[in-house]
Each structure stands twice: as C-alpha cells, then as structure tokens.
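Milestone M4 deliverable, item 7.
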Amino acid sequence: MGREKLEFTNPVILLLGCMTLFVIASCANADSPSLSAVPTQSEATATPPEIDQQIPVEQDISVQESNNEAEVEQKEIIVEEVIPSSRGVSDTTVRIGIIKTGDVFSDIELGVEARISRIDTEDETNARGIEIVQIIDDGGDPQRALEAAQSMANQDVFAIVLASIAADRTVTDYLAEQNIPFFGWGFLEGYCYPNQWGFGFNGCLNGHALDISGASVDEGSLRVSKIFYGRQPTVILVTTSDVAGDAMEATVSKVWGENLVAVVRIPPTQDSDIAESILEGIGNADSDMLWLSIGLGKTLQAKAQLIRAFPGMVVDDVTYLPGILREYETSKELEGGYVFTQFPPQEEYREAATLIATDLENINGPLIYSQAISVGYWSADFLMYLLDQVGEELNTRTFFNVANVQGTVYSPDVSGGPCALMTALVHQDPSGGLALLQVRGGVFRPVVDFDCPDRYWEN
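Output delivered:
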C-alpha cells in the first residue's frame, strides 16, 4: 500500500474531504470527528446587524431613509466599541501568525509565504511587508487551539491565518474579544455572525444552516446544468441519517426543489455494504445524477460499484484531493465518476493556477499544490487586500470600519480565482463558486469550469 493511501485513510484527512462542499451539512458521520454537526437554532442566538440590501421598489421612501439612518447610527456605535490598537503594526511591517491542524493543513504556510513573496517581486500598493511571527500546530485539539490563540495574542500579532479543525467558538470568540482578525476557509462557525472578526476568503459557508438572518444558501451545484444544455437535471441525494444529513437534505431541497426526486439516508455508523444499501434505497427512482454526500471513507468504498450500476452521473463532494489519484486502486475506484469542488481546480490551468505556481516558485515551493496551500494563499490574499484598503492609518478600529461597516468588494481579479465577495456581508453569506470535474484516464479533468454567481453589488 502506497504512502498516499495511508494518508487518505487517516481520520483527520477524511475530515478534509468532508469540508469541500456544504461543509456543515454533509460531514458528521463515523468517518470523521464531529466538527460539522449543525448547531441548533438556540445555539445561533445572535443575529447579524442589518447590512445594506437592495430595497424593494414598493417600499416607502421615508421608511427607507429612516431605516438607513438607524442603520448608520447602529454601525457607528459598533465601531466606537472597538478599541483602536496598533499592536503588531509598524511603519514597515504587519505581524501575523498561523494556527493550523497539521494533519489536514500540513503545508498551509507555503501558500501564505508564496502570496507574501509577491510583495518583493511586484510593486504592490501595500506599504508594509508581512512578517509571519509564529506557526502553531494544534494537533486537532480544541484546548491546544485555544492556547495557540492566546500565545498569538501575547506575540503581538495583528492578524491570524486560522486553518484548524479544532477552533471551536471558544477559540474564535477569544480572538474576537482580543479584536484579532482571522482569515481562512469559512467552514468554522466563528466565520459567521455574531463573530465579526473572522474572514473566510469564500465567506461564511454555514450561515443558512445556522439560521443567520439574511444568510443566503449556496446554489453553486446548479451550475451542473451547463452540461445538460441549460436543462436542470434531476437529482437523487445520498447523505447520512443524522443532524448533518438533515441539514444537507434541507439545503439541497431548497436549491433543487422538485428536481430533487429522492433522498437516501445512510446510518453514520454503517461501514459495509454501503453501495448495496444505496441501490436498494434508490429502487426504481430515475434521475440524471446521483449525489453522494457521505464522507470520504464511504464514498471510496461505494463509488466504483455505483458508477457501474447507476445509469446517470455519480457525483460526490469530497474526492477532489491533490494526490488521491496517485494510488492506483483509489484511482480505479473513482474512474468515470464526477466531483464537485469549491476550490478553483489547478487542472483548469487558468490565470489563478498560474499565479499560485509562479509565487510558489519564488519560495522554491512544490509544482503541484495542495488544498492547504490554496487555503493559505487566498487567505493571505484577502488579508493583504483589506490591509491595502485601510492604508497607512492601520489599527483595529480602522480595519473593522473598512471591512465591516463601510464594506468593500474583495475580488482577486484573476480568471479561475475565488469569487468576489462584499466584506460587509462576509459573515453571513458564502461567496459561491464551484467546478465539476471527472476522473478520466486516472486524472481529474474539468467538465464545468470554476464559475461564480452574479451578485447585485457587482452590477
């Protein structure tokens, strides 16, 4: 058995697979720790402050003006509560730290370092360099994650790149209390309201599941319609029979409506005969697409048999992992199947992939980059964008004001990069963005290129 196979059977690596799409909704099962169980509505007690939204035409103008005045006043109060601090900031440098779960995000710092390296190779608007003060591996332990956050606060850092599966609300609430902005992949609850110091480069992924007022649901999966000549295909969803499965079913049902023709639920503890159970559950249901959202371990066990038996597409949301196809047996199990990914795929060889590869070359990094490197790269890109927007008068209050009150549109402006997002909405909405790939000839091949939704604030 090859080294890659051992890596992908590690339970923490299985968690990484669970986080690729509809993160909170689809992962809580026997294959991985219970990171993604959906909180009950009582756990999401706070609702976000109102954000500027499009006003319906029929709304009375006087009411609109009154609401806007109240909203501005509310935002001013929030900003005034932020104590202005320039910790970790000098005229030439901004100090940051990295907290990671090493088994999952082993080389995330390479992505951060690669993005930082461009400051030295291009004349960017950022007047300050970025210094990585400390990198801490929390080992997936919530207590160690909290201790790491406390250590970072004592290290006089301005911001943190947070790529941890253990950073629960205790950790993210602590960072918020310290007014330390943190950046990463927005699967953690702390990237969503009521926390306003977490900035996911792809937004808040679970706002809808957390019942956050005004949060939108990610409709990226509808882009598969492109290969059906605009016709929306019919779908059978396979998910787990637990709270996470409930949320996944509710989300897919909301997005796909009547085109979701059947749902098959698999016990999270089931670890054998999974394909047989799925086929039995499908029965005579007819569909264009069979969507597996059951975690990496179960997907690898069942997908090959389902590809042979199911007449339509067999799609999952976890198996786009760099290196996974190097193991021959794994590659054979996935051959012919499809996979959704939230990340711009390297295999598209678009401008974003070229940009990362070039910046990795600056630091003698790898030619093939991992998801962890992508997380680090785009997290650092988002951070550096906001630092540029704040400008010379950088402190915690000016940062909070620009990011959360004034709001600004972050857009990498490169083909195939993450989707644009409005920073004032980053704590409630996902940014969208999705690609569809197929395994053919033992490699991932793009079928639907990574694309982004239209947003009203971009028009």
